[in-house]
């Protein structure tokens, strides 16, 4: 919640609201709403409500705006002309929209692609562009695995279908050179971000960057005679880096796709409920799933819903918002659904018509002012969210006091008499509280603008609701928190302290009464105080609890999980390697040992065998010869005898 | 005239012309540069069938890409018709139809009329998947088959008519039950819903 609206964003939105109120005020002066030009935060907050009644700007405000834009352009020039650019000032100024001629460089600076020191720009640009060329060589122009080929095929299929709103009649996005540029950007990005990789709809984001950066060199609506490779190379690299930097801010959302999207849709649903409860009920009754229409808004950052110029204006605010703009984006989406003109239309529609309407929002007639209204609307929803959070926790505290009272005191009726006498107690107890409260309030206090103007309303409305609501007999005494005493406080710290002191006082009265009969009461008081501090206040002030987007935690979880898996794998591999090394060493040693013995033995055996064989052969041969000789002799003798 | 509400999902690999088919069917338009579908998109159209039935079709156009599968799968529930689309000029889109079919039956239950559509039939010169192959695949898996062209509007209407006619036929034979006439809705967060629906369906079937 707090991430969605950092102080500089709130400041800028209040300024936008003031401008809108001022322009509305000039047209409404005859009807007597002249105080709109006041610049104080309180009146601007009050005027937030009025702005909504006047959504269609007339030519007067149009004229004023164009004057303002000229001044704006000068202001940008003066910031950008400095040797070291003041990022904070640039950020604050950019939130309200960047003039077209400055947009490319301001986006690049705010996305941290370019440093604030102007003299470094040239070097960094050439470095980064070279780096990109290397990445392209590494991933795109080298051998690809089958998986990479399917990825590239998918990108190749989608790239020609990329068509930013309002460019279907111009040749730019139909040219094959541009398709190749987009294809390389998307493919290399997917390879450098394997955890997310490419998904459909991502192609719309670099398309916006390409268009904005191309405006530096060519007329993007005209024919492409001026377009050459040199320009495209530069723009391609710039787009790639800016896409990477922008997506880094949204990473935790898309790593676990299903959960991230679901979380966003749920948050959106809750915000819409805060703003337009009837509409949210209607959507629920019709079974209209928020994911159905909001998925595209979340992924394409509304670039498909708005025409190029309007989308640029919205993205000015997103980029100026800083790394947490993703949270802010959900509020903008909520403001978009609850656009005042659309709410009655939506409430009449049935499921199918509802979805069709939300999938094709009629934003063709919108102009820059509508985006301003949208941003202010997002802030209004944020205020409502704070209000409901404060109400919730105040209710809790009061209920706690009631339960304590009913437990500890049986004679509540007597307290009425003490109310008037206890003004001194009031001061004392508030002093007591002031010592302990500020330390706990600190987290919210860092963002003082959040509560300053609205705590009054919150308390008053809460008290009203409590008055109407019959909680119990004891709560009727709480109205000692009268309106005037609250209104006298100016900052939330004091208000909180006051609220507690008054509750405390009320409680103290009871205790005083009881102390006559019960001696342990001072200890109880201390206990209860500590209980409030530990149990209720933290839940109220813990911003991370109010904010449902625990995406950062998830990111950390994700990273630690990965790290653990990697370390585990490394250990495992190490152990295996060790075992293998030991085994091989052992076998080598043993083999060598055995080999040396074996060889000598076998050689000996061979020698012995051979000798044996030879002697055998010798024996056989001599035997053969003697036999032969004998036979020969016999035959000779036979012959002799015959003769 | 008897009136029916049917839920129809259009599914298949990326870039085969699912959204174009719908655009042609619902708005009678064609555009070569349609944006990629992100998640699920919805259309509805009322049509007449044989001038005896009035049919309101709720058509859910799902994204073809893998990343969205976990989201699109939720919309298969309770569908009466599934149109499984492939591209006749792209062999890859035809290759893995088996797994797509499996997913359809897994996500929606057995009781669904599936129609296989070979799209881009206007590109006959670039054809790589023969008509017979599509027919054979359909016969083997016991589903309907048709070739269409979203570009010159051949068979687009007929594809939807064939599918709805089959559903009506099944209903008349008592083999399929339309659970409710109101458009069926899906919620991601209610996990008990599908069981209930299935139970309803089962009791209806028996």
TrEMBL record, chain A:
Molecular function via GO: GTPase activator activity
Residue numbers spanned by region Disordered: 409-439
Bilayer-spanning residue ranges: 563-589
Stated name of the protein: RabGAP/TBC domain-containing protein
Record domain Rab-GAP TBC: where: 97-322
Biased composition (Low complexity): 409-436
Transmembrane helix among keywords: yes
Highest taxon, organism lineage: Eukaryota
Gene3D superfamilies: putative rabgap domain of human tbc1 domain family member 14 like domains, Ypt/Rab-GAP domain of gyp1p, domain 1, Ypt/Rab-GAP domain of gyp1p, domain 3
PANTHER family (alphabetical): RABGAP_TBC DOMAIN-CONTAINING PROTEIN (PTHR22957:SF457), TBC1 DOMAIN FAMILY MEMBER GTPASE-ACTIVATING PROTEIN (PTHR22957)
Keywords of this entry: Membrane, Transmembrane, Transmembrane helix
Chloroplast among keywords: no
Pfam family, one: RabGAP-TBC
TrEMBL record, chain B:
Molecular function per GO: GTP binding; GTPase activity
Segments for region (Disordered): 185-206
Skewed-composition ranges (Low complexity): 196-206
CDD domains: Rab
Family of the protein in this entry: Belongs to the small GTPase superfamily. Rab family.
Name of the protein in question: Rab GTPase
